[in-house]
Structure formats: structure tokens, C-alpha cells
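This section describes the prediction task in plain terms. A model, or a person checking by hand, is given the sequence of a single protein chain and must write out its three-dimensional structure as a string of C-alpha cells. No templates, partner chains or ligands are provided. The sample shown here is typical of the held-out split.
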Amino acid sequence: MMVLDSISAERGGQTVVKRLSARLEADTASLAKLKGRRVLDFAGIGDPQRFFRTLRAGRIDVVREHKAMRLLVAGVDPSVTKTDLARRIAGSRPWLACCVDLGSESVDTRSNAEEAGRWLARHNYKSVRLITSDWHMRRARYEFEKVLGRKYALTTDAVRTEPSFLTLFGEYNKYLLRRLAVWADL
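The expected answer:
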């Protein structure tokens, strides 16, 4: 569910929106289906160090807390290695070595889903948790559902951010264009 928030002020007798933000809230029905089950976590990101910092800041530490067997970080620049991350993230070497896979095959959201599908099949997993920023979750979920179908139980964890209006506008239009392309079978 998308929740829009705005901060407005009166200026010259007119209401002016100073900040518009949006977030996706967890789908509690999907989460309830996975309660008590071990799930796999997935995220597509361009900056792994920032990604892990954001997860820790949001108290989402799925690998260290053993809420996930493995974590696929897709869309990583091929030059980024686990050794690089371990140097930058204190105490991460053991769980990076055992439980994190860096994927560099994908270049966009659709190819993230395709890469994840191959990875899920290779590891014989039955469920997946998609982790990405709140503003990107709707399109990411759409792509994952298109690629994975009903083969895997999918749940989402949107990391709360404060995107700019321009970011939201761009993402919403990408989402609409992708839906249109699928509808038109392009």
C-alpha cells in the first residue's frame, strides 16, 4: 500500500506543499503467509556499502539475525568484491563469506528479477524476500512477479527513505511505462 505524506504551509493566502514523500507499507497478508518459515532475501543495488548501512540503520539485519539463509545482492558493479565490503563494514567478514552472494549480471530492475530467478533455481529455494527502497518497491515487485510467477512465495521489505518529488515522479513514470509495455506486449 502506498502512503503519501506532505508538509504544507500557508504563503500569501495559498497553501504551498513544501515536501511530498511517499512510502510503501508492508503487505501484512503476504508476511503472515511466511511467518515461521525461513525465507531468502534479495536486493538489487548499485552501492552495496550504502545498502548495508541503510539496512542496519533501519534495524534490518536479516543475515546476522538468521532471518535468511542467504542474501543475493544483485546489480553490483563487477569491481566490487566481498573483500572490499568486509574492509568497509566492521565485523562483516564471517557473514559475507557464508551468507552473501554478489550478483553483477543485472543492469536494471527487470534483469535483477531474472538474475534472482536463476539464483533461486540454482539454490532450490521456495520463497524470497525482496528488499529495496520504498519508492522503488512497487516496480521491483511488479518485475519479480512477472519473472518468477507463482513459483516462489514473495514478500517485500521496503526500506523507508525520503525521496525527492523528482525521484518519485521518475519512478512512477517508469512503473507506468513498464506496465504499458507489458500490456502492449512490447
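For orientation: The chain is about 40% helix and 30% strand.
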